[in-house]
Amino acid sequence: MTVIEVNHLRKLYHGRAVVDDVSLTVEEGEIFGVLGPNGAGKTTTVECIAGLRARDSGSVSVLGLDPSADRDELRSVVGVQLQSAVLPEKIKVWEAMDLYASFYERPADWETLLDRVGLAGKRDERFGKLSGGQKQRLSIALALVGNPRIAILDELTTGLDPQARRDTWELIGRVRDEGVTIVLVTHFMEEAERLCDRLALIDSGRVVAIDSPAGLVARVERDQTIRFRPSGPLDDAVLKALPEVSDVTKSGGTLLVSGTGNLILAVSAALAEHGVSPLDLRVEGATLDDAFLALTGKTIAP
Ligand SMILES: Nc1ncnc2c1ncn2[C@@H]1O[C@H](COP(=O)(O)OP(=O)(O)OP(=O)(O)O)[C@@H](O)[C@H]1O
C-alpha cells in the first residue's frame, strides 16, 4: 500500500527553486531513503511532506491527507525528527517525553519507549548532559511518542561515532519491524546502503533515480576489482587468459585483478586448478557514490 505520494513537488525560496521537480512514492513498512549532497533539497522535500513547509506547486498525499490542508490530522500519524535538537539544555529526559506525549490523544507509553531506545537509565538526566548518541536516540523516541504510522528522520546519525551510528541503525531497523514506515534523509552512502529498502537520489531539487541500493549500484557499469595475496607462485597469464579478466596488476605481494561478469568465481576456479589459495581476499565493486556520479557527473561525498 502506498502511504506517501508526491507529484511534481516544487518549492521556491526567494524566487529560486530549491525543490524543482520531485515525484516519489513510499510504500507501507519500508525504509525509504532520500539521498543527495548538501543543499540538494532533501530537507525541504521532507518538510513539505510533513506539513512543516508550504509547497509552491505539485501535490503531496500522506495516508490520503494533504499536509498543507490537514496539518492536525497529519500530526497524529506522522512523527518527525528534525536535524537540530530544539530542546532546552535543562529539561530532563522524562520531562521531554511527558511533554511531547501530552501533545497526542493516544500517545505511546513513553517509559517503554525510553527503554526501547536504551535510555531508561537516563530518565532523570538533563538534555544538556546527554552524549550526541543519547540526544539522537531521545529525538527518535520523541518522534515516536505519538505512535505514528510514518516516521520522518532527518540526518539521523550526523555527528555520531561509528558505534553509536550502528546502534542507531539497529534501532531504526527494529522500529520498522514493528510496522512503522520510515523516511530517512541522509547524505551517508553507507547508511543508505545498509538501511534503506529503496532510495531516491536527489540532486539540485530533482529526483535523478529511485531504486533499491543494489538496483542503483547495478546501473553502474564499472569493473570489479579483486585483491589477494597468492599463497604460492602464479603466472599472471593464467588469470589474463580468463574471459572475465580485463587487467592484472601487482603491488608488492598483492595481485589486483579487475574484470566483469562472474569474476570471483572464474578467478577462484583458476586458482584452485593451480593449487593456489587467495589470502586476504577483498572484493571491491561499484558503490552508491559511483551510481550518483554516473547519473549526475557529481559525487555525493563532500
Ligand atoms: N528557509 C530558507 N530560506 C531560504 N533558503 C533556504 C531555506 N531553507 C533552505 N534553504 C536553501 O535551500 C537549499 C536546499 O536546502 P535543504 O536543506 O532542503 O537541502 P538538503 O539537501 O537537506 O541539504 P542539507 O543536507 O545541507 O540540509 C539550500 O541551498 C538552502 O540554503
TrEMBL record:
Which Gene Ontology BP annotations are present?
A: response to antibiotic
Q: Which residues cross the membrane?
A: none
Name under which the protein is recorded: ABC-2 type transport system ATP-binding protein
Which keywords accompany this UniProt record? Antibiotic resistance, ATP-binding, Cell membrane, Membrane, Nucleotide-binding, Translocase, Transport
Q: How does it sit in the membrane?
A: Peripheral membrane protein
InterPro entries per the UniProt record, alphabetical: AAA+_ATPase, ABC_transporter-like_ATP-bd, ABC_transporter-like_CS, ABC_transporter_ATP-binding, P-loop_NTPase
Q: Which domain of life is it from?
A: Bacteria
The record places domain ABC transporter at: 4-229
> What is the first-listed, main subcellular location in coarse terms?
membrane
From what organism does this protein derive? Thermocatellispora tengchongensis
